[in-house]
């Protein structure tokens, strides 16, 4: 008995049915579309079984499934090694086409290349689309075609190009929902995937503060941030809708979205930055890499209230305010002389909004080793940062319960650490 020919749409970091480029294109297929998500063992095996990001993915897949059930359809959930999952799917179904949105991280590029080769061997056509950015890969380059490595000219070129398109077209997927494959697949529980609910949750995003974003964004006690970053990371919001909206609302907020694309372009063009300094001249720095100092930083017991409050917020909630991220990153690299890769890995483990390109980019910025980075002799004073951005101590009191009872002695003297950092960088930077 012959199988019904079908198309697949493969969800990855685009967990929504609205304004989804690859999904829109899939629904134009002449074959019914099976929506698919694969819980990839290559990613999951390194995570704790209560990782809140897996719970967030599962929660949003459940929302998608509920919407699909209204159409007499559902999402197919698989777990395993991605290549093996696709091998099995190609045997189970008569797969004519596969649609997906691009991912620009090194592992994703390697994975997708292997899957596309497998599909081609099975006479299945693969289509990939730009969805998580406005401009991808080599769309924003210098006149000579080389990638920008400085943010401001990248931003100027980005804005110049965006203005020729504004607003960027959005995609009405709902008009073609009738082309979903009519079958009800079993939707697994989180426990059946091998995970448990976490007490840490992703917050709903909130854009009501954006009109005066530039006035409030540096003050962590106000708690007036958008909480958008995890939603952008996992694609529960459309970057096109967001940018089209932000373009008319707030230039500073828009510039943060452009920073996101700048770091994505850097990662795509210079994949070595995942583990290596962008500036090879910094490879000679002699880091202290003291494990006990690192533990105190991780646990938020450095004796510097702004640093400790930030790390405790991260450990308890999976979030950290952006201004505070700069302070804690600078402290680790400059005050403690611990190389940025240690901090980057810890953030990757804890942050709900972990995005490789931004995490690596911002850590190298703080360490001075990245493109368009803070100069090595710029060493944030955590006490001055606290006085400027948390003058009344509201933020540090929220996260350091013992703060009102007096607080411990700083683990390292700022003046000494600053002089030591500058001397170490000077001695280590290769001429």
UniProtKB/TrEMBL annotation:
Keywords: Chromophore, FAD, Flavoprotein
InterPro entries associated with the record: Crypto/Photolyase_FAD-like_sf, Crypto/Photolyase_N_sf, Cryptochr/Photolyase_FAD-bd, Cryptochrome/DNA_photolyase_1, DNA_photolyase_1_CS_C, DNA_photolyase_N, Rossmann-like_a/b/a_fold
Any GO BP: nucleobase-containing compound metabolic process
Cofactor: record remark: Binds 1 FAD per subunit.
Site (described: Electron transfer via tryptophanyl radical): 287, 340, 363
Keyword hit for Cell membrane: no
Protein residues bound to FAD: 213, 225-229, 253, 256-263
Cofactor(s) listed in the protein's UniProt record: (6R)-5,10-methylene-5,6,7,8-tetrahydrofolate; FAD
Entry-linked Pfam families: DNA_photolyase, FAD_binding_7
Domain of life: Bacteria
SUPFAM superfamilies named among the record's database cross-references: Cryptochrome/photolyase FAD-binding domain (SSF48173), Cryptochrome/photolyase, N-terminal domain (SSF52425)
Residue intervals of the Photolyase/cryptochrome alpha/beta domain: 5-134
Annotated GO MF terms: deoxyribodipyrimidine photo-lyase activity; DNA binding; FAD binding
Similarity section: Belongs to the DNA photolyase family.
Designated name of the protein: DNA photolyase family protein
Source organism of the structure: Flavobacterium pygoscelis
């Amino acid at each position: 008995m012959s199988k019904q020919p079908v198309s697949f749409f493969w969800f990855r970091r685009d967990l929504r049915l609205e304004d989804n480029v690859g999904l829109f294109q899939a629904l134009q297929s002449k074959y019914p579309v099976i929506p698919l998500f694969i819980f990839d063992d290559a990613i999951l095996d390194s995570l704790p079984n209560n990782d809140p990001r897996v719970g967030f993915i599962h929660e949003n897949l459940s929302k998608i499934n509920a919407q699909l059930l209204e159409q007499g359809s559902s999402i197919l959930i698989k777990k395993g090694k991605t290549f093996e999952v696709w091998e099995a799917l190609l045997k189970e179904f008569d797969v004519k086409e596969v649609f997906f949105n691009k991912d620009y991280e090194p592992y994703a590029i390697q994975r997708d290349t292997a899957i596309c080769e497998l599909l081609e061997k099975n006479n299945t056509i693969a289509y990939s689309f730009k969805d998580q950015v406005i401009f991808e890969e080599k769309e924003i380059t210098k006149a000579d075609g080389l990638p920008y490595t400085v943010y401001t000219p990248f931003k100027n070129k980005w804005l110049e190009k965006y203005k020729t398109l504004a607003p960027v077209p959005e995609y009405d997927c709902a008009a073609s929902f009738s082309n979903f494959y009519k079958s009800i697949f079993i939707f697994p529980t989180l426990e059946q995937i091998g995970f448990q609910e976490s007490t840490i949750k992703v917050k709903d995003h909130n854009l009501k503060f954006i009109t005066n974003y530039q006035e409030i964004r540096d003050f962590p006690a106000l708690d007036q941030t958008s909480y958008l970053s995890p939603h952008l990371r996992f694609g529960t919001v459309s970057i096109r809708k967001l940018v089209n909206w932000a373009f008319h609302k707030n230039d500073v907020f828009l510039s943060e979205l452009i920073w996101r694309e700048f770091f994505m372009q850097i990662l795509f063009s210079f994949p070595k930055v995942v583990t290596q300094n962008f500036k090879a001249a910094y490879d000679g720095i002699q880091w202290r890499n003291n494990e006990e100092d690192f533990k105190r930083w991780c646990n938020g017991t450095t004796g510097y209230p702004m640093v400790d409050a930030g790390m405790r917020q991260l450990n308890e909630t999976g979030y950290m305010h952006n201004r505070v991220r700069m302070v804690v990153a600078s402290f680790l690299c400059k005050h403690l002389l611990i190389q940025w890769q240690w901090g980057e890995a810890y953030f990757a483990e804890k942050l709900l909004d972990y995005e490789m390109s931004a995490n690596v980019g911002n850590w190298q910025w703080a360490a001075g080793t990245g493109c368009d980075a803070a100069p090595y002799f710029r060493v944030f004073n955590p006490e001055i940062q606290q006085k400027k951005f948390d003058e009344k101590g509201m933020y540090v009191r929220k996260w350091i319960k013992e703060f009102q009872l007096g607080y411990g002695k700083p683990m390292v003297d700022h003046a000494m650490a600053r002089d030591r950092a500058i001397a170490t960088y000077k001695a280590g930077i290769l001429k």
